[in-house]
């Protein structure tokens, strides 16, 4: 076994030196906290993960935001709903302008059905 291990090439080791001046690439310097931006992030999270609007009334979920930034102001479900609608309308407008600039578009769909799927 020792002969086998001696013949094997070792993986190259990349020397890594920690730099005290290294900056977090995800941290944007010079940006101040904005409640409007947080509301946009919350609305986007609700839409992407398909959460109900009343998730913003969940205390534990809001604790995360308040812990991350004490300046965070809670939002109600009606505000979250209106923020989601604003984002939806803005994205719809962008998509409409994109589609008007195209001459052709191809849509495909999968019509496969499971044998266990209930017919509607």
From TrEMBL:
One MF annotation (Gene Ontology) recorded for this entry: zinc ion binding
Record's keyword terms, sorted: Metal-binding, Nucleus, Zinc, Zinc-finger
GO cellular component: nucleus
InterPro entries, sorted: ZnF_BED_domain_contain
Subcellular location: Nucleus
Metal-binding is among the record's keywords: yes
KW Nucleus (keyword) present: yes
PANTHER family according to UniProt: ZINC FINGER BED DOMAIN-CONTAINING PROTEIN 39, ZINC FINGER BED DOMAIN-CONTAINING PROTEIN 4
Protein name, entry field: Uncharacterized protein
Source species of the chain: Cuscuta epithymum
Lineage summary: Eukaryota, Viridiplantae, Streptophyta, Embryophyta, Tracheophyta
């Amino acid at each position: 076994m020792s002969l086998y291990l001696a013949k094997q090439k070792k993986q190259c080791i990349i020397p890594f030196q920690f730099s005290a001046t290294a900056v977090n690439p995800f941290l944007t310097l010079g940006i101040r906290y904005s409640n409007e931006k947080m509301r946009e992030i919350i609305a986007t999270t609700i839409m992407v993960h398909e959460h109900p609007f009343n998730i913003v009334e969940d205390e534990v979920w809001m604790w995360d935001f308040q812990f991350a930034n004490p300046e965070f102001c809670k939002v109600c479900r009606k505000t979250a709903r209106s923020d989601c609608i604003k984002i939806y309308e803005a994205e719809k407008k962008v998509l409409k302008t994109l589609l008007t600039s195209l001459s052709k578009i191809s849509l495909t769909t999968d019509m496969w059905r499971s044998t266990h799927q209930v017919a509607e």
